[in-house]
Design goal:
Radius of gyration: 20 Å
Number of domains: 1
CATH class: Alpha Beta
Oligomer: single chain
Helix content: 40-55%
Shape: rod-shaped
Strand content: 15-25%
Order of helices and strands: HEEEH
Largest sheet: 3 strands, antiparallel
Distance between the termini: 35 Å
Number of strands: 3
Structural class: alpha+beta
CATH architecture: 2-Layer Sandwich
Strand order of the largest sheet: 1-2-3
CATH superfamily: Nucleoid-associated protein YbaB-like domain
């Protein structure tokens, strides 16, 4: 009985170490999204924070402001989807053996 607990504790410690490593990798991850055929480019971090934004100068006309705003939102959504996929893939590699409930998201 105690052997099973010891084994579980060792596995938990290994999982904790892998999770810490994965969190570091995720924090360093970046993804870029585009919209408007590349007229707007957004880069986000693994934490979902916008790191950079590039707007093609051809869009910088007052009458195009609403279009530019929509393109920024679309580019951000594209980049966020890319980074979310990287995070999900990395976490699957770490927690692959854990029976996590459907839709459960880890806190990072």
């Amino acid at each position: 009985m105690f052997g099973d607990i010891g084994k579980m504790m060792k596995e938990a410690q290994q999982l904790q170490a892998r999770m810490a490593e994965a969190q570091e990798e995720i924090a360093k991850a970046e993804a870029t999204g585009t919209s408007g055929g590349g007229l707007v480019t957004v880069t986000v971090t693994g934490k979902g924070e916008m790191k950079s934004l590039r707007i093609d100068p051809s869009l910088l006309k007052p009458e195009d402001a609403e279009i530019v705003e929509d393109l920024i939102i679309a580019a951000f959504a594209d980049a966020k989807a890319h980074v979310d996929a990287v995070v999900a893939e990395r976490m699957q590699a770490v927690t692959g053996k854990l029976p996590l409930p459907p839709g459960f998201k880890l806190p990072f």
